[in-house]
Amino acid sequence: MSDLLTVICPGGIAGERFTTTLEYALKGHPARVLTRLEGPVSHARILFAVPLDDAGMNDGLWPLLAYLRRHPGCLAGSVGGILVDGPSDLYTKAAARDLALAANQAGCLLVGRPLVEATGDLRNFTVQAKNADCSLEDAYRLAARDLAARILDFAPVRHPRPRITVLHASSRRTSNTLDLWGAVRYRLADRCDITEIGLRNGTMEDCAGCPYTTCLHFGEKGGCFYGGVMVQEVYPAVRDTDALVLLCPNYNDALAANLTAAINRLTALYRTTPFTNKAVYGIVVSGYSGGDIVARQLIGALSMNKGFYLPPMACLLETANDKGSAMRLPGIEDRLAAFAGRMREQLCT
Q1: I want to staple 166 with a disulfide (CB 3.0 to 4.6 A). Which of 55, 159, 196, 225 is the partner?
Q2: Could you say which DSSP state residue 205 is in?
Q3: Distance between CA atoms of 289 and 296, rounded to whole angstroms?
């Protein structure tokens, strides 16, 4: 892996704030800047740097997304992160999610917390600025520099026998998603220790947004104010796990309610337990369409916000409606074998 940082800046570097921040982030790091992709960029350290206009657009971003989607494997072996700068409170995260999914499906690993986003007035850096006792502008520049360093330094940890935690909220009697996971699990069981936790039965309290100090207090004690299955089963499993797998049927183009609640409730654990060396995977099954929407939600919630790293091609996306139909999809056995094989290769020594 090269020490050179490859900056992919669709459309070119634009705007004084973006330019000065990028210069600060790259200071001391050998770098090359590409304004478009015309061929594979494999085994590289990549910072995607995307300035947006007041409509949340970047004319060079769409050709970049098209290239990534049309050329599977073009970023094979690469490690990356994303910097997005926009003049309003909107569109930065949407652009980042689109790019994150496309890059990951093209073979790029994304580090935990792979996104630094700058909204118009930089109020999204209020907490970071307070913690660092600096201005919003300085907090933005420091975050960009930290992201560049983490991209260059990151190396996934492999384990003799990885521990995998699986979260789902589905019925085994009817779930296509669980059927696919069962086939993946069969291919992993000889090399991994696997814990499955069903969130379907009983009461699953969602996070009600306790004050920071309250959440921190319970997190330091290994718990959460609301208790239940999250404290009894999920927290201990996630604390000790090497990889988290979410089984995600598409409900109205969104994650299942209990999975969303579980992600929200991970905040207390996240305050005291680093997730940056833990991988996250997803199996997404849609009845009709929209699996990519759910995959973007998973990436945003667990990688961008909670800090799990995203191994290359971390999401298996399938479309199946009737009970049992997922396992009859053309080519499904090959795709399941490939997905399980990647997990073994990425997690096992």
Answers
A1: 196
A2: P
A3: 14
pLDDT reported for residue 217: 46
Q: What distance in Å separates the CA atoms of residue 83 and residue 33, rounded to the nearest whole number?
A: 14
Torsions phi, psi for 84 (to 5 deg): -125, 135
Helix (H, G, I), strand (E, B) or coil at 11: coil
**Of the candidates 337, 347, 344, 295, the residue with the CA atom closest to the CA atom of residue 319:** 295
- Per-residue pLDDT tens digits for 280-294: 999 999 999 999 999
Helix crossing, 136-153 with 16-26: angle to 10°? 40
Residues with Cβ within 8 Å of residue 93, at least 6 apart in sequence: 84, 115, 117, 300, 304
Transcribe 89-120 into DSSP letters: SSSHHHHHHHHHHHHHHTT-EEEEEEEEEE-T
DSSP tag of 125: G
Q: Running along the chain, 349 residues long, what does each successive block of 10 average in pLDDT? A: 89 94 97 96 98 96 98 97 97 98 98 98 97 98 98 97 96 91 98 94 59 54 68 95 97 93 93 94 97 98 98 98 96 98 98
* Contact (CB, 8 A) for 138 and 130: no
∠ CA 66-71-74, rounded to 5°: 115
Q: Rounded CA gap, 94 and 84, in Å?
A: 10
φ, ψ of residue 156 to 5 degrees: the values are: -65, 145
CA distance 118 to 82: 11
- Which of 129, 109, 110 shows the shortest CA–CA distance to 121? 129
Mean pLDDT, the chain, as a whole number? 93
CB 253 within 8 A of CB 293: yes
Helix (H) or strand (E) holding 84: strand 79-85
pTM reported for the whole predicted model: 0.93
pLDDT by residue (tens digit) across 62-110?
Answer: 999 999 999 999 999 999 999 999 999 999 999 999 999 999 999 999 9
- Take residue 85 and report the two structure tokens written for it: 């700068």
Residue 187, CB-side half-sphere exposure with 13 Å CA sphere: 17
Q: Which strands sit side by side in the sheet containing 193-198, from one edge to the other?
A: 193-198, 163-168, 243-249, 279-286, 315-319
pLDDT at 210: 55
